[in-house]
Structure formats: structure tokens, C-alpha cells
Amino acid sequence: MKSTIRFFYIAILVPFLLSTAAPAGAYDRVNSEGFASRSPVLARNGMAATSQPLATQIALDILKRGGSAVDAAIAANAAQGLMEPTGSGIGGDLFAIVWSADDGKLYGLNASGRSPRALTFEYFAQNHLDKIPSHGPLPVSAPGAVDGWFELHKKFGRLPMEEVLAPAIDYAEKGFPVTQLVAYYWNRSVPLLEKYPGFRETYMPNGRAPMEGEIFRNPRLAKTYSAIAEGGRDAFYKGEIAKKIAAYMQDNGGFLSYDDLAAHQSEWVESVSTDYRGYDIWELPPNGQGIAALQILNILEGYDLAALGRTSPEYIHLFAEAKKLAFEDRAKYYADPAFNEIPVRQLISKKYAAERRKLIDSDRAAKRYDAGNEALRHGDTIYLTVADKDGNMVSLIQSNYRGMGSGMTPGDLGFILQDRGELFSLEDGHFNQYRPGKRPFHTIIPGFITKDGEPVMSFGVMGGATQPQMHAQIVINMLDFGLNIQEAGDAPRILHSGSSQPTGEMMLDGGYISLEDGFPMETRRRLVQMGHQLRFESGPYGGYQAIMRSGNGVYQGASESRKDGQAAGF
Questions:
Q1: 28 CB contacts (<8 Å, ≥6 apart)?
Q2: Are 279 and 472 in contact (CB under 8 A)?
């Protein structure tokens, strides 16, 4: 009888003890945080980190052939447009920050496209639309990625574009195995997009989306890439490709024209920064949302976060409140600076942060905040980063916006046009109000860190409004909580949702917080007591890549454990 009882306790208690010995997502690593999925990757001659392992290998191959970090980044981005159409493609836009070792400085590129000139603001009211649709012809703006490639290549490239695009062309012709998460999101997109002309022919071989491990080919995209490699950016914006895009849009109720494409050009911009704990954190100015990360950091700099602790309810509360404050300004002011005077310097100033910080109640969640008065005083993405042996580093982000884009898949070109125009506001007088020839508010943001004028880290986190929150968390995880480059991305994440938006929605209920596994129940309970709403969500926490450069010239690479990607070097 005693042996039977002993067996009962062993059978019941041992599995229970094992299941509760470590938090969900913990790993048995002897010298890392329990949530660390792997060590940072170390190399001297070059490093690449992307969300697609084959794209990472392509980037390294380009570096080994003598290509620059920019050459390798373009090659990887082209491959991802083929292999990860759920988050990227030449129908979308691109932003980049480049560290030039020769010049000892950062360069910022805004390669986002503008709205069709023939589509007027009045059209939406005349057709009884109070918001711009998420799919179809109306949210399509000019795709800026290809021009972005050639602007980057002209300034920093070494290899001819034919050689840079050759690997992606080869994979498009011969095929590649579809990865796990890409297959998941691809299949989710089909019910929304299969009705749009050209989508089924390009993205549904055998009448369905490919499954994980199946070989996918896109000979149409191979032909388009070959034309771009041979004819340059004008082949896309002024040649046969542009004519096909324009004809397709005209035939399917769209407004994007040949003249819109021919007139497109990227813009080199000055990156902006704030000092956080002695490091300079760099972002691009609007029409993107990068400065929201700087505003969050400026507000939180006034607190001893290290003393509070990474999983404490006090830290999470302060983070959520700082995010709410920054996103009120994001909703009001972030827009195309060609149409409005955006008070960027004031918004990211320490003085302004101190004023906003006073609005936070350390014990209670706010239901709403108003945007500051600075103006009166005057879903899906890919992120990649590459570094070369000469010390050049590229932080590049590229997207079609929502999922695979608008669904509009022109002719036999092999790609989808973006639906970025959905992010305009239809509120008359709003900074982000829709106008013809205007760049919409953008979510995609590359990040960079320097110290004393030297490069420290190129990093980014893909995922809509998640991005500035995660930029701030990566920085805080490293500089306040002492995590390494891989641990900083693996650490359980905080996500606040429900803020006011640049498209016109207002936060009136305080929004809600989602916490990944790894935060104590006591923390969750206390947050509810402080007035926060908590929700369980799986999947919206973003995807991270980063490369850090040490003083001895060694690179450390990190990649997102929540995605299919890889960091690798040589």
C-alpha cells in the first residue's frame, strides 16, 4: 500500500514540479538569463541579421564577394520580397539609417511613396467613406522601395546591381522552401486577398497558398527583378513596369498613374536623437513614428528603472503611461513634413519630456491624455541589419504595410502594391489629413545607437505600432537592466494598445496592456489594481534584429526568437 501511495505522489507531483520550475519560454542556459534563446553571434569580418535564414546567407555571400553592407542589405531585402511576401516587397516602402565608416556619420533615407495626384480628398466624402479602406485600389500609394535601393546603392554600393540582385532572381526562378511563420501568415491572407486580380495567379499555385516546407517559385518576380537589374530604377518608375502598374490600376478602379510613378523620388534626411543614459539613440523624423521611441525614453529617463526591476508593476505602469503620452503627440503631429511644420525638436526635447512626465500618476493608470501644445509654440514588416569588415552598418526596414499589402497584384509583375494610404486621416485640418501627392503617416522605423560619436548598435523591431514601444524596451533592457544584445530581444515584452491614432481614433478608456509569458502573476494583479486593463494576446510583440560593434571591431549579432530568422557572420 505504501509503495502505491509513493508511486501516486511521484506520478502527480514530479510533473507538476517540473512544469513550475521555470517560467514559460525559459531555456536551460548556464550563463544567460532564463529567457535567452541563444548566445549572441560573434564575428569580425561581417554580420547579417534578417527574419529569413536564406536572406541572411545571401547577405553574407555578397559581403564575401567584396560587397558593402549596403549591397548585402539590398540583396537580402530583394530575397525577402520573394521569400517573405507577408511582410515585404517592391510594391512597398523603405527607410534606412546607414553608418558610413569613411565619413564617420549617419545618413538617413526616407524612401516612402506619395498618394496619387488624381485622388482628391473630396472623393472620399462623395463616396460616403469615413476612412480609407484597408485593401483594394484606394489605399495604394507609390511604391518607394526600388528607388530606395538605388539611392543607397549610388552612395554606398560597390558591386553592380546585377550581381546584387542575382541571388534573389535565382531563388525566384528555381524556388525555395517556405518557412513556418511566413506560411502561417500567407494562408491567413488568402481569404482577404484572393479576390483581387492577379493575386491567385502569383501567390496561389495549385489554387492555394503554400504550406510550410513547400517549394514556391515566382518567375514573374524573377523577370521583374532582372529588368530592374539591367535597366536601373527607371525600368521600374518610367519603363515597362511603370506602364503595367498604371494600366492595371486604371483597369481596376485605382488612381495611381504612370506620372505618379515617374515623379517619385526618395529623400535623404537628417536622423534625430536623444541622449539616454549616456548613449545617443537615433531615429528618422516623421512621416514615420520613430521619434515616439525617443519621447518614451525621455520621459522614462526621469525614473530609476533599474531599481524598480524589469518585471515590476511599477516599471510596467510607468512604461505604459509614457507610451500613452508619446502616442497622443504621435496621433496629432506625426505626418508628412512637406505639408506641415512638425515640431520635432520640441517634441524630443528634455524640457518637454519633463513637462509631460508631471502628468503621470505613479499609482493610477490614466484613461486619457491630451497631446502637448508644442505646435502652438511655432500590422507587417521586415527588418534587417548588415555590417561589413570596414565598419559600415545598415539599419533597414521595409514593408507593404497590412499583411501582404492591398491585394492589388499588377499583371505579370510578381508583386503586390502596398496599402500604406490606409494610414491617412480623413479629418479635415488634421496634420495627417489625406492630400494628393502626400506621404502618409508611416509605422516602419529603423533604429541606431552611438556613443561619443562612434557606432554602437544597429537595430529594429518590426510590427506596426509595436515598433517604438519595442525600440524603447530594447534600449531599456540593455542600458537599465544590463541584458546583452540577444537577451534584450528575447526578454518578455510589454505592449500597450488602444492609444489615439493618426487616422483619427481617440483613446478614452486608457487602452489595455498585453504581457508576454514571463511576468509574475503578482505583477499582473497589481497592474489591474492600478486601473490597467490586461488582455492575453499571442503574436503582436514584434520581430527584432540587431548588430552591435565592440571597441575591438568584433560584431555581435542577434535575431528574433519569435520569427523564422537568423543572425550569422564570418
A1: none
A2: no
Contacts with 232 (C-beta within 8 Å, 6 or more apart), sequence order: 150, 161
Both 373 and 250 in one domain: the answer is: no
For the chain, the helix, strand and coil percentages under 3-state DSSP, each to the nearest 5? 40, 15, 45
Same domain, 74 and 187: yes
For 359, other C-beta atoms within 10 Å of its C-beta total 14
Which amino acids are annotated catalytic? 381
Task: Please state, rounded to an integer, the average pLDDT across all residues of the chain.
Answer: 93
Strands 543-549 vs 512-515: parallel, antiparallel or unpaired: unpaired
pTM beyond 0.70: the answer is: yes
For the stretch 193-210, pLDDT in tens is 999 999 999 999 999 999
DSSP state letters, 68-104: -HHHHHHHHHHHHHHH-TTT--TTSEEEEEEEETTTT
Range of the domain at 412: 53-267+407-421
Number of domains in the chain: 2
Residue 7 reports pLDDT greater than 50:
no
Q: The domain spanning residue 373 has which CATH number?
A: 1.10.246.130
On whether both 95 and 158 belong to a single domain, the answer is: yes
| 278 is an annotated ligand-binding site residue | no
Instruction: Report the length, in residues, of the chain.
Output: 570
pLDDT tens-digit map of 235-290: 999 999 999 999 999 999 999 999 999 999 999 999 999 999 999 999 999 999 99
Q: Quick one: 477 and 416 in the same domain?
A: no
| Residue 7 within a domain | no
Please give the helix or strand (H or E) that residue 448 lies within, else none: strand 447-451
DSSP 519: S
Together in a domain, 175 and 133: yes
